[in-house]
Amino acid sequence: MKITSIERSVHRLPLDPPFKPSWDSRARHHFDVDLVRVHTDEGLVGVGSGDSMAGFAGHEELFLGEDPRDLDRHFRIVENLSFHYGRCWPLENALWDLYGLYTGEPVWRLLGGRSNKVRCYASSGSLRAPGELADLAQLIVEEGFPAMKIRFQRADWAEDIEALAAVRDAVGDGLELMVDCNQGWRMPWDAKRPWSLKEALAVARELEELDVYWMEEPLHRGDYEGMRLLREEVDLRIAGGEMTRELHELRLLVEKRCLDVLQPDCVVTGGIFGLAQLARQAVDAGLEFTPHSWGNGIGLMANAHLAAGAAGSSFFEFPFDPPSWTPERRDFPLVDPLVPDSQGWLVLPEGPGFGLELDERRLAETRVG
Predict the structure, then answer these.
(1) Per CATH, which fold does 109-347 belong to?
(2) pLDDT tens-digit profile of 53-98?
(3) CA distances from 122 to 30, 62, 141, 170 (A)
(4) Helix, strand, or coil here: 334?
(5) CB of 78 within 8 A of CB of 89?
(6) Cα–Cα distance, 266 to 165 (Å, whole number)
(7) Which long-range contacts link 9-14 to residues 24+ away (Cβ below 8 Å)?
(8) Are 101 and 44 a contacting pair, CB within 8 Å?
């Protein structure tokens, strides 16, 4: 079997009402999905998505004519491209989907088959007034989720604590709460400085009082010593690593004992091949491994296969913030949006590859460029 072509396309969904993410000062009025398809001479087509793969154009010849099953080789070439250009890992994901189609097995089983499902936590994305956030938490309980992630990034972190306290008062101890402090990285136009260790420690003490399960991205992504010291000082878990660019940086987070919960994303760093190895290393070191999955349903499913097959994650991120962010919006390229069951479990398909069906009519309608 040989790779015959690599097809890339962009699809845009208008957002009305717009989505206002906590990590971005600019509201999102549309949602773009960058899709990559790997075609073979046997008619099999693997699909990946989650990043624009900036700089990939013109490098297709590095893969054309190659056997798509040579996953180690392709991982190394994509790693090279992702160093020199943009993050090209959706292509590597598509090759795993293709390998699953060829073998007739789901990707989670090819990775070791630790489980065929992941327990989802509802990951909110916007900033709301305390009462509105408490209402969302009540809805999340009714939907069957066992946990919820709350975003910080208000003008003063004391306001963030007020919103978190409102949620805890509303749901009691019936819902695990995580907090994303959004201090690890910034959008290109955001010049705000990250918290210092003293600020992060002060926030952490408040989170301990409210029985928070983990504190995510409390410091700049390169502050290894600060993360290590914070982790030693507090009882709650410290999480991070979602946008870390290189695998060796993630390994350093493990080796330096900076985190309790490692959160890389296979569409932006390391792919499935690299992160499966890292997940086993993290679990062996006593860390939790649960991928970041804030994107579209194709990237979400790739990360779910990784989490289920290689790590057996305790919780898995499921973006959910209606009405501005819903499974129907997030997964518009798919025939059926991904939804967990009434107990919060996302059950992965037994079908080959990622087990996804693209909505070709919708993709044609939304294609741009």
Answers:
(1) TIM Barrel (3.20.20)
(2) 999 999 999 999 999 999 999 999 999 999 999 999 999 999 999 9
(3) 22, 39, 10, 16
(4) strand
(5) yes
(6) 33
(7) 9/34, 9/35, 9/363, 9/367, 9/369, 10/34, 10/35, 10/52, 10/367, 10/368, 10/369, 11/35, 11/332, 11/333, 11/363, 11/366, 11/367, 11/368, 12/366, 12/368, 13/329, 13/332, 13/366
(8) yes
Cβ within 8 Å of residue 93, ≥6 positions away: 48, 49, 50, 266, 267, 271, 272, 298, 299, 302
Helix (H, G, I), strand (E, B) or coil at 368: strand
CATH of domain 3-105+358-368: 3.30.390.10
- Cβ neighbors of 161 (< 8 A, separation 6 or more) are 203, 206, 210
Stretch(es) of the chain classified as CATH 3.30.390.10: 3-105+358-368
Instruction: Match 């010593």 to its residue by tokens.
Output: 225
Structural tokens at position 113: 């088959």
Write out the residue limits of the CATH 3.20.20.120 domain(s) in the chain: 109-347
First-to-final CA distance of the chain: 31
C-alpha to C-alpha distances, 207 to 216, 267, 314, 362, nearest whole angstrom: 11, 30, 20, 43
Report residue 184 as tokens.
Answer: 């690890």
Sign of CA dihedral 282, 286, 292, 293: positive
pLDDT tens readout for residues 102-138: 999 999 999 998 889 999 999 999 999 999 999 999 9
Q: How would DSSP label each residue in 338-349? A: ----TTSEEEPP
Map tokens 């679990």 to a residue: 283
Q: Name the residue among 199, 198, 216, 215 with its Cα closest to residue 207.
A: 215
- pTM for the full predicted model: 0.96
Are the C-beta atoms of 51 and 35 separated by less than 8 Å? no
